[in-house]
Amino acid sequence: MTHQDTHDGHRPGTTIRILLADDHALVRRGVRLILDREPDLEVVAEAGDGAEAIAMARTQDVDLAVLDIAMPRLTGLQAARELTALKPGLRILMLTMHDNEQYLFQALKAGAGGYVLKSVADRDLVAACRAAMRDEPFLYPGAVTALIRNYLDRVRHGEEAPEQLLTPREEEVLKLVAEGHSSKEIAELLFISVKTVQRHRENLLHKLGLRDRLELTRYAIRAGLVEP
């Protein structure tokens, strides 16, 4: 049988094959009912703990793993880390009773694309599965608030985010380079010497690991400094 695969092996329009891991059989049954009601979702494997989930992912053809966080032998977080390394194309959702910021951040670091509370699984889980397959993060409203609060705290405490790699002056030079201005024009616009402009350009290339003006321009577009 021949078919056109996407980069991760999942074909648009086909059923999303799900591995479900939770140490409570009753919870698994409830979650399975929610998922199997949908024509595009199918639970093809069930595991009772994190270690079993990893073993099943090795042998089963699955697109998405839905993992409970609190499980014996290996937690869902530990399993998520292993699965991310084992199958980079596999999408992962964490299912939990805990509205807990610490778990949330650990889940995102472990490679999970979404975080769903069991208390509202009947409302959120199906949407979260579909979002995960589109590579979109799915977070409940409280989690979004926690992430924003965490980000603002880091900014207030002077912890720079990676995107704040450039000084404001370097950012100005980058924008003007990307807009096609010559070193002489940039020097005049910013009231600095041509030599200083060239030094800033060299620093930009070095800091960003780029080679030439074309790559600088691409970076400036991605960073939202210039419109494509």
Automatic annotation (TrEMBL):
Keywords: DNA-binding, Phosphoprotein, Transcription, Transcription regulation. Residues 17-133 form the Response regulatory domain. The keyword Transcription applies. GO terms for molecular function: DNA binding. Residues 159-224 form the HTH luxR-type domain. GO terms for biological process: phosphorelay signal transduction system; regulation of DNA-templated transcription. CDD domains: LuxR_C_like, REC_NarL-like. InterPro entries: CheY-like_superfamily (IPR011006), NreC/VraR/RcsB-like_REC (IPR058245), Sig_transdc_resp-reg_C-effctor (IPR016032), Sig_transdc_resp-reg_receiver (IPR001789), Tscrpt_reg_LuxR_C (IPR000792), WalR-like (IPR039420). The modification 4-aspartylphosphate is found at D68. It holds the Pfam family GerE. This is DNA-binding NarL/FixJ family response regulator. It comes from Streptomyces griseoloalbus.
